[in-house]
Amino acid sequence: MKSYEEMTKEELLKEKEGLEAEYKKFQQRGLKLDMSRGKPSQEQLDLSMGMMDVLSSDVDLTCDDGTDCRNYGVLDGISEAKQLLGDMIECNPDNIIIYGNSSLNIMYDCVARAEIFGIMGNTPWSKLDKVKFLCPVPGYDRHFGVTEQFGIEMINVPMTEDGPDMDVVEDYVNNDPAVKGIWCVPMFSNPGGVVYSDETVKRFANLKPAAKDFRIFWDNAYNVHHLYDEPQDVILELLSECEKAGNPDMVYKFSSTSKISFPGSGVAAISASKANLDDLRTHLTIQTIGHDKLNQLRHVRYFKDIHGIETQMKKHAEILRPKFEAVLEILDRELGDLEIGTWTKPHGGYFISFESLDGCAKAIVAKAKEAGVVMTGAGATYPYKKDPHDSNIRIAPSFPPIDELVQATELFVLCVKLVSVDKLLENM
After folding, report:
1. Residue range(s) defining the domain that contains residue 260
2. 396: domain CATH number?
3. Pairing with 124, which of 34, 158, 294, 428 sits 20 to 30 Å away (CA)?
């Protein structure tokens, strides 16, 4: 089949007629499908149900150091939980503070503390004339929501196949003292599935920030979320690279078990230098007496060690992999030769990133919704929800059952075709 670009006006009009007839059939199905958020499916949640049985009224609820997990105390988190998450993210357990169930909450707290109190004795951000954050795009909408809420100016940084464009990052960070941070999802980035290269990580570690309180917000949310046994992508560990480069305090590294156990009841952590953690503790000790130690204990007793997590993630992969492959097969089959879109083929994570023709993303998402499929809002993957090209769409295959996912994807590609034909006809 010809690409749409190669078609004459008459051929495009004939194609449109057929597509509209097919679209009406979808509308008549009365679909109510949701492909909007990267949530684990019920089948994935069921994998962790055994966790509900490891603690009961008749078991010992003390941790390794003898602390009664039912009571107050242990600000940093129990030692065995720090060991478990330390192994998961390749960090020394001494450089970890365990929080509650959400790494996003920790990130929010870090930004809020910087605004109110400043970082390690530096001027609070709220007292500065201008604060800027770098935002690799397309990126995670909830990251952008945090900095937007605090009135921080967000600057787009293009993503490459190796991570953020480091020439742009270095230019801003090394020369502008108003640049205080950058959002990063280094492993299977949201939404593109990009894995940061060794060179990218080393360039991050060797930044020379104009601001003493510049911090890399390293959200390592998907570091064990592989879809395949082979090949498995790896990234350099940033904290150790920063230490080698003489920048030990430059990074906050965030992690959680949210998509490993239960998203609503996982365990989250921050890892950083001793100086950074001491700075956080000065405020944390006022904020809380300690987070949920029973949940920490539950996770440790269920998974036991990193091998337990690895086994669990293979089970997740067995559920997720057919879904990703089903979406990619339909995209390849229906759009592969038409030259009206491109898409990523990630080795892990939770998303596929789709790039339509310029000026088409909002219309595609709206048309899909009209026929019963809800997707992530077009523009959500950019700060202020403003995609300058109106082209990026995040596809989230994880939550729907595979039969619904196939229907949703078939409708999606139909909407891509319809909107693309209209765009090309407009330009003739």
Report:
1. 66-304
2. 3.90.1150.10
3. 158
Is the predicted pLDDT of residue 54 greater than 90, yes or no?
yes
* Residue 372 lies inside a defined structural domain of this protein: yes
Residues in the chain: 428
Distance from C-alpha of 78 to C-alpha of 42, rounded to nearest angstrom: 30
- Strand ranges in 332-408 using DSSP code E only, listed in sequence order: 341-343, 352-356, 373-375, 392-395
155 SS3 class? strand
Q: Give the pLDDT band (50/70/90) at residue 100.
A: very high
Predicted confidence (pLDDT) per residue in 298-348, tens digit: 999 999 999 999 999 999 999 999 999 999 999 999 999 999 999 999 999
Of the chain, the percentage scoring pLDDT greater than 90 comes to 97
Model pLDDT, residue 231: 80
Kindly state the tokens that stand for 12: 């495009």
Give residue 158's identity as a one-letter amino acid code.
Answer: P
At residue 211, does pLDDT exceed 80?
yes
Q: Count the neighbouring beta carbons within 10 Å of the beta carbon of residue 389.
A: 13
Q: Are residues 82 and 220 in the same domain?
A: yes
Say yes or no: 115 and 9 in one domain: no
Name which of 158, 151, 110 is nearest 134 in CA terms.
Answer: 158
Find how far residue 140's CA is from the centre of its chain.
6
Tokens of residue 63, six digits:
């941790």
Strands 96-98 and 268-271: antiparallel
Strands 179-184 and 163-164, sheet pairing: unpaired
Are 134 and 175 in contact, with CB atoms under 8 Å apart? no
Stretch 134-139: mean pLDDT, rounded? 98
Shared domain for 325 and 397, answered yes or no, is yes
Task: Measure the N-to-C terminal CA separation of the chain; round to a whole number of Å.
Answer: 20
- State whether 322 and 262 are in the same domain: no
d(CA 403, CA 72): 48
Q: How many domains does the chain have?
A: 2
